[in-house]
Design goal:
Layout: H1 6-27, E1 31-37, H2 56-63, E2 66-72, H3 78-87, H4 121-127, E3 131-137, E4 161-165, H5 183-208, H6 216-238, H7 240-244, E5 247-249, E6 252-255, H8 263-277, E7 283-288, H9 309-331, E8 338-344, E9 353-354, E10 357-358, H10 376-379, E11 380-386, E12 395-397, E13 401-402, H11 406-413, H12 429-433, E14 443-448, E15 451-457, E16 466-473, E17 496-506, H13 525-540, E18 547-549, E19 554-556, H14 569-572, E20 583-584, E21 587-588
Parallel strand pairs: 1-7, 1-8, 2-12, 2-13, 3-4, 3-7
Antiparallel strand pairs: 2-11, 4-5, 5-6, 8-11, 9-10, 14-15, 15-16, 16-17, 18-19, 20-21
């Protein structure tokens, strides 16, 4: 056999190799980098109208991608909003809607959390061969029945790697920042303990002075009662810094209590390392920042740089972090195969302030904020998607979209066609790519705890978006824009005002919800209420929890099993045998070795 000429043979080999590489790149699944800020107001970002806080990196994502102007969180508080984001379903379906005072998880040593039976987008993508990572805040529980069972832990919900806060960042994590974990209950228990102590001291003094004979058995019993009262107040609350404020790597506690000052740099470093480690395989990274939730950071490089005190400094640090993550993706040549997403879990905490100034965010023209039910300021958040070559640069989508839409969107892009349970979100790609002009969300339901607070309707063939409020949380003082007595508006009883007929707004013409419509000003008034009522009943028929209420009527579930509530006092309150700990409980304590990071 005559050998092939050398030049044609080399050319053939190069073409074959090039064809294989191109085919491999073309067949590779896309990467996902999801970035969520905690408690950030939509009005804090330049591309959403802020001209005094500098956010060039976030603005760049919007100019190079698609910006959503009506992106809606499923709840105005961390735990229920994040549960809905992770699962593509209203938090009520996971048992994470509250009926009373406590509306988020408050102790790492509680047993509540995202049920093991739930499915997250991370779990679906993991089944599709993705490497999945969560860096930052979780706040959806850890243990169920014993320390170390990790039934609610991110590793059990589809994240192959976890580094960060299994809980959240509270004022209690930093000395001198005040208290925000059941602060009213803390004060009550502290005062009760003080009163009992003073009473016991008086009784002992009277006995010693011979003014009144008191049995030693009674004194012993009273001493035990005093010690018990002191322990009930002091142990769970005074050790909150140790109990709640920790950092975990996967299922190991690596820092307890955590050093807050270096947290932003460590979260950024972990996110960058995850991207670099997995650059040659499909990956999902969820960077869940601890900013802007109080207590605010005092990073020296950003202190005093902004025009809005510590809050502005923190916002500009967030923008810098987003820029560094984007730079990492781009420098590795991953931009054309990576969908990047930026959002907040809900609106800014507008009434949070102290003597040093504003500590919460700005929600722009929108009424209300964090923990204020269905008002736009608490649920309308930034939504930015960037994917060069796939999504058109500079596109703006004004249609209603939801944080719950991420779940079906990621499933679609990961080519996951396996059957799933009922979802409340929709695939966003047709809207993002410009193949569709109308959202599939004709109706959206807004919850305050388990109570159906408001509904928005985007009628077919109309640009209007009508919003119906069945009840609204009471602001204190009236009209001031916040619940100053509790810092978190409650959703039941005397804490809300019911409206009959419901309050009605047209968000197209009145996005700040300042001019309620009436039958005289809106010809479709009766039709809107009628169509909304039909949609509510249809929605309620799909709820698998024990009850859902509009605050006046309770509707039982009659066709499926109930998801146990994760927000009862029994599940919320601290239990020592569930407390994550490094070292020997209760003598927990360790510091992360950062020498290698």
């Amino acid at each position: 056999m005559r050998p092939l000429p050398l030049a044609p043979l080399l050319l053939s080999l190069l073409l074959t190799a090039g064809s294989d590489v191109t085919g491999a790149e073309g067949d590779r699944m896309p990467n996902f980098v999801l970035m969520m800020v905690d408690d950030m107001g939509i009005g804090d970002v330049g591309c959403y109208g802020n001209d005094t806080i500098r956010t060039p990196n976030i603005d760049r994502l919007a100019s190079e991608g698609v910006k959503l102007s009506q992106h809606i969180a499923a709840a105005p508080l961390c735990t229920p909003s994040r549960a809905a984001f992770m699962t593509g379903r209203y938090a009520l379906r996971s048992g994470l809607g509250s009926t009373g005072h406590v509306q988020v998880l408050l102790f790492l040593g509680g047993s509540g959390g995202l049920p093991p039976s739930e499915t997250t987008f991370a779990k679906r993508l993991q089944q599709q061969g993705y490497t999945t990572g969560l860096v930052g805040k979780w706040h959806l529980g850890v243990n169920c029945e014993r320390r170390g069972d990790h039934c609610h832990h991110p590793n059990q919900h589809g994240f192959s790697y976890f580094y960060g806060l299994p809980f959240t960042l509270f004022n209690d994590c930093v000395p001198g920042e005040g208290r925000d974990v059941l602060a009213d209950l803390q004060n009550t228990l502290q005062n009760l303990s003080l009163i009992l102590g003073l009473g016991l001291a008086t009784l002992v003094c009277v006995h010693v002075c011979g003014l009144l004979e008191v049995s030693l058995r009674l004194l012993a019993a009273l001493i035990c009662v005093n010690l018990l009262a002191f322990a009930v107040w002091f142990v769970p609350f005074e050790f909150l810094v140790t109990w709640n404020c920790i950092i975990m790597r996967n299922q190991e506690v690596i820092e307890q209590p955590m050093t807050v000052e270096t947290l932003p740099q460590r979260l950024l470093g972990e996110a960058q390392s995850f991207i670099k480690r997995n650059a040659d395989r499909p990956f999902l990274l969820f960077l869940s920042l601890a900013h802007i939730h109080t207590p605010l950071f005092t990073t020296p490089a950003f202190a005093g740089r902004s025009r809005h005190g510590r809050y502005g400094d923190n916002m500009e640090e967030v923008d810098w972090i987003i820029g560094k993550v984007t730079e990492t993706v781009d420098s590795l040549g991953l931009a054309s195969n990576t969908l990047m997403y930026f959002t907040s879990d809900h609106g800014g905490h507008i009434e949070d302030a102290d003597a040093r100034g504003q500590k919460g965010g700005w929600n722009g023209i929108y009424k209300g904020g964090k923990a204020m039910g269905g008002w736009e300021g608490g649920i309308r958040v930034p939504g930015i998607f960037r994917w060069p070559g796939r999504l058109p640069a500079g596109r703006v989508v004004d249609e209603p979209t939801s944080l719950m839409d991420l779940y079906p969107t990621l499933k679609y892009l990961a080519q996951d066609t396996q059957p799933d349970r009922l979802l409340d979100g929709y695939n966003l790609m047709p809207l993002l790519e410009g193949r569709a002009e109308r959202s599939e969300h004709e109706f959206m339901f807004h919850y305050c705890g388990v109570y159906l607070n408001a509904v928005r309707w985007h009628p077919p063939g109309s640009d209007s978006i009508f919003k119906v409020h069945f009840f609204t949380p009471n602001f204190s003082p009236p009209g001031a824009g916040g619940c100053y007595d509790t810092k978190v508006c409650l959703c039941h009883g005397d804490h809300v005002t019911h409206h009959n007929p419901p309050l009605l707004y047209d968000l197209l013409h009145d996005p700040s919800e300042s001019r309620p419509l009436t039958p005289d000003t809106e010809p479709r008034f009766a039709e809107i209420l009628e169509q909304t009522a039909v949609a509510v009943e249809r929605h309620r028929s799909t709820i698998t929890n024990k009850q859902v209420s509009d605050g006046t009527h309770t509707h039982g579930d009659t066709h499926t099993h109930a998801v146990p509530s994760q927000m009862t006092w029994e599940k919320i309150l601290w239990r020592p045998w569930l407390q994550p700990c490094c070292g020997t409980f209760p003598f927990c304590g360790c510091k992360e070795d950062t020498a290698h990071t």
